[in-house]
Structure to design on (264 residues):
């Protein structure tokens, strides 16, 4: 079966992220095996719980959370990209201080290697 | 802008049909080195893939060709000079480094690069090399 992996490099306030979410959701709804989404560069901002987007704008982070819950979609966060953008994901940080959205798995670039090895197709946004 | 003639497009399509994806990843570098972190973020991916012994090739296109021009000094503008790390490509077995000839010509850049073993390719050959890869990421 074809396996799809997705790389997201755009921040939650980018319209390009909406395209990525639409793409991933369409794939999932068609039964494509989406083996994971890897958040790199400004994509890591998606995992920052302190981000607030005006309520009349598109709520990208809510949508990622929904896709994760509805389809058990793995969301991998590049820790280096996240930390330089203010997302605290150190395992020694207690959960009260951490502002990393818990639907994201803390990963590194090694996870991207893993995804690219297992995926039939890798699509970057 | 279409850099391809119809003939070239069909030549690339032909090589796609007989596709032999020998290498895991092609990284296209399309941004100049110091204004944004794309070049460094791409380099980090290249080194990780190489560490996991996944074949990775580097493609330099558009303003990305500036990453290879010699005698640059990021420290003059207080930017960490990640270009120095390019010297380690041999150690990481990153041997396939391709530069778009047209991108160099458009910028009137001479072929004086800060690393050896790079190949300057026409647009067509650049594309033919690109399709030999299982995956492509662009920065």
């Amino acid at each position: 079966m074809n396996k799809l992996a997705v790389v997201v490099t755009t921040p939650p306030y980018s319209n390009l992220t909406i395209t990525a979410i639409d793409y991933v959701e369409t794939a999932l709804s068609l039964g494509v095996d989406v083996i994971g989404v890897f958040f790199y560069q400004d994509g890591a901002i998606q995992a920052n719980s302190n981000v607030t987007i005006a309520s009349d704008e598109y709520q990208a982070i809510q949508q990622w959370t929904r896709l994760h819950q509805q389809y058990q979609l793995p969301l991998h966060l590049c820790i280096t990209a996240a930390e330089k953008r203010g997302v605290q994901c150190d395992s020694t940080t207690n959960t009260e201080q951490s502002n990393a959205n818990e639907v994201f798995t803390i990963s590194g670039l090694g996870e991207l290697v893993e995804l690219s090895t297992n995926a039939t197709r890798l699509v970057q946004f | 802008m279409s850099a391809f003639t119809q003939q070239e497009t069909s030549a690339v399509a032909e090589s796609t049909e007989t596709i032999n994806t020998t290498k895991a990843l092609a990284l296209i570098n399309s941004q100049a080195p110091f204004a944004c972190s794309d070049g460094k973020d791409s380099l980090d991916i290249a080194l990780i893939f190489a560490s996991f012994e996944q074949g990775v090739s580097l493609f330099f296109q558009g303003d990305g060709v500036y990453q290879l021009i010699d005698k640059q000094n990021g420290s003059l503008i207080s930017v960490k000079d990640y270009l120095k790390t390019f010297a380690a490509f041999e150690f990481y077995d990153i041997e396939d480094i391709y530069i778009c000839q047209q991108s160099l010509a458009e910028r009137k850049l001479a072929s004086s690069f800060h690393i050896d073993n790079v190949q300057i390719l026409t647009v067509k050959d650049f594309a033919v090399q690109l399709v030999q890869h299982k995956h492509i990421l662009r920065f």
